Structures are given as C-alpha cells and as structure tokens.
C-alpha cells in the first residue's frame, strides 16, 4: 500500500467517524469508545508489525485493515457480529472519498 493510499483511507475514516458526532450523549459516548478502540488497535498492530520488521508497505496495509475493521459498528450501536455485513457493504460501495 502506498503512502497516498493510506492517507486517503485515514482522511476517509476520520470524516466517517465525525458523521456520528450528532445524537444524544449516550450515542456520542459509544461512538467515542468505538473510535478509541480502533485507534488503540492501530497502535498495537503497528507495534507488532514493527517488531516483525514488516515492510513499510505492509505496515501501511496493516493500518488500513485496522482502520476499516469495525466500520460497521459506527452505523449502528451494535454488538456481536451483525456489524460485519454492514461494514463490508459500506467499504465495498464507497470510494473512500466521501464517507
């Protein structure tokens, strides 16, 4: 994965997450928890990837996969695996330009 590609994904992800800032206080708190979870997983995955001495391209790919791994959870306040089809559809049908 190129630097340009991961920058596009980062930009898309942050804009996508911001879409969920509206709503009541409980919903916003839950969305912030989901955002924090994803960012923690990014940090941990990067740490593991560096320890494995993977290439910069694969490190960027790892970050992209982590950023996108729970996209479906933001669409609904969901638990369990129900968010997987929602996230897959969102990622499959988006251009990563517009959240």
Structure overview:
The protein has 99 residues and is mainly α. It has one domain (3-92). Helix content is 72%, strand content 0%. The chain contains five helices and no strands. The chain has helices spanning 3-18, 25-51, 56-68, 71-75, 83-92. It is globular and about 45 Å long. The two termini are 20 Å apart. 14% of the residues are buried.
In short:
The chain has 99 residues and is mainly alpha-helical.
How many individual β-strands? 0
What is the chain-wise order of helices and strands? HHHHH
Uncertain runs: none
How many structurally independent domains? 1
Number of helices: 5
How would you sum up the global shape?
globular
**Termini separation:** 20 Å
Query: Mind telling me the C-alpha Rg?
Result: 14 Å
Strand content: under 5%
Please bin the fraction of helical residues: over 70%
Biggest sheet character? none
Q: What average pLDDT do the residues reach?
A: 81
Structural class based on helices, strands and sheet pairing? mainly alpha
């Amino acid at each position: 994965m190129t630097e340009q590609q991961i920058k596009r994904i980062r930009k898309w992800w942050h804009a996508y997450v911001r879409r969920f800032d509206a709503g009541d206080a409980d919903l916003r708190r839950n969305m912030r928890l989901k955002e924090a979870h994803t960012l923690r997983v990014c940090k941990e995955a990067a740490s593991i990837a560096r320890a494995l001495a993977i290439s910069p391209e694969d490190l960027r790919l790892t970050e992209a996969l982590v950023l996108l791994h729970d996209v479906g959870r933001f669409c609904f306040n969901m638990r369990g695996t129900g968010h997987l089809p929602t996230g897959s559809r969102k990622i499959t049908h988006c251009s990563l330009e517009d959240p």
